[in-house]
Specification:
Elements lengths: L10 H8 L3 E5 L4 H12 L3 E8 L7 H5 L11 H9 L3 E5 L1 H9 L12 H19 L3 E3 L16 H7 L6 E2 L11 H4 L17 H10 L17 H14 L6 H6 L4 E6 L2 E5 L3 H8 L6 E5 L7 E5 L3 H13 L9 E6 L5 E6 L14
Helix pairs in contact: 2-9, 6-7
Length: 363
């Protein structure tokens, strides 16, 4: 009985099968990056995730502080995503390096202070450096053509690949069929026919694919992780830069911008007012760095004073502190004011009427 002939295998396919390929995936914690990594895992690629900590991410921090956010999961969504995928995740702190992206974006800002195109180029460049150092073959992202107005356009996607130095080792599995072939596709490391052609801002295709993979618990598909896309946060950061006369910041600065009401009643100082017990507890951690006030006769917020203040300024700050507490309708409220050195004294003030607080004081 004749022996069946063995199937003919091309040298390239044989080499691809013999050499397990490795991809590093940018994992933001959102649905798109989860799906992009899963598409590669389904093709037998060894995938490890990478997440860069800039200090500007929304998730976890505010959910853990605000009282009304307590029902939300206290988790790092990038770690959660990696766990669902069964892959290793490398979290890398880039706070200092990232400052130049925020302060001097080559391609400018988006609608707020979001330097999205420069940010994506920075992230992919850092992933390329990690890839080269650790012997990986290519980079994958969850980008979708037409989804983001600044960084995910047909004309800007090549900019990211070029300026990051990744060139054709950058693969976007969710929209790869709409883009030129990359090195992993040409070399047969991945099957282009099994990649996707997602396009536009709608998320229904991603949600359907998530259901096919059995993913039911994931971050809001249309959500963004970055505070710099938030108009109010950007306004507060602009105020910080303007009053300092320099576009610089430290981690504590950007953390404090995420918490409390921020009011600037005078050019020389602003107030950070805790909105609930969780924020009061957080701001209490900064009491040795700032002059601060709190009411003793009524329940109310902890208030930090950021700036150099006169006695008249302190009196105004005390009246505002009284307005935001339970004594807002009282004739007088007793407060304690404590300087950064820990010296305290008592003040008795009348709460400022709500109509006497101009809207422009609120940052």
């Amino acid at each position: 009985m004749p022996v069946p002939a063995s199937p003919v295998v091309s040298p390239r396919a044989a080499a691809a099968a013999a050499t397990p390929r490795k991809a590093v995936a940018l994992i933001s914690g959102g649905l798109d990056s989860m799906l992009a990594a899963k598409v590669m895992l389904e093709q037998g690629i060894h995938v490890e995730g990478i997440n860069f900590y800039t200090g500007f991410c929304v998730e976890g921090h505010t959910h853990a502080i605000r009282n009304h956010e307590h029902a939300k999961p206290k988790r790092n969504n990038a770690l959660w995503t990696a766990e669902q995928l069964g892959i290793k995740l490398h979290i890398i702190e880039v706070i200092e390096e990232y400052k130049d992206v925020v302060i001097n974006p080559r391609h400018g800002y988006g609608a707020n202070l979001n330097p999205c195109l420069d940010c994506k180029g920075f992230m992919v460049r850092k992933a390329r450096e990690w890839m080269e150092k650790n012997g990986f073959d290519f980079i994958i992202t969850g980008e979708v053509l037409g989804q983001r107005p600044m960084s995910q356009r047909r004309d800007t996607m090549p900019v990211v690949a070029r300026e990051s130095g990744a060139f054709d080792r950058l693969l976007r599995p969710l929209c790869a069929k709409l883009l030129p072939e990359t090195l992993p596709e040409r070399e047969g490391w991945v099957d282009r026919s099994k990649l996707l052609d997602f396009n536009g801002r709608g998320r229904k295709p991603q949600m359907r694919l998530a259901a096919q993979y059995g993913f039911t618990d994931y971050a809001q598909p249309a959500g963004g992780c970055c505070f710099l896309t938030n108009e109010q946060y950007s306004h507060k950061l602009t105020d910080l830069w303007t009053t300092r006369g320099s576009k610089q910041y430290e981690l504590d600065d950007i953390m404090l911008l995420k918490v409390g009401r921020h009011l600037r009643p005078r050019p020389n100082f602003k107030l950070i007012v805790g909105r609930d017990e969780g924020e009061n507890n957080f701001l209490n951690g900064y009491r040795k760095r700032f002059m601060h006030l709190h009411a003793t006769s009524h329940q109310g917020p902890l208030v930090l004073i950021d700036g150099n203040v006169s006695e008249a300024d302190i009196d105004l700050a005390a009246r505002l502190t009284a307005r935001f507490g339970k004594g807002r309708e009282a004739e007088t409220v007793i407060l304690t004011v404590t300087d950064a050195a820990g010296h305290s004294r008592e003040l008795t003030v009348a709460p400022i009427p709500a109509n006497d607080i101009p809207a422009e004081w609120y940052l």
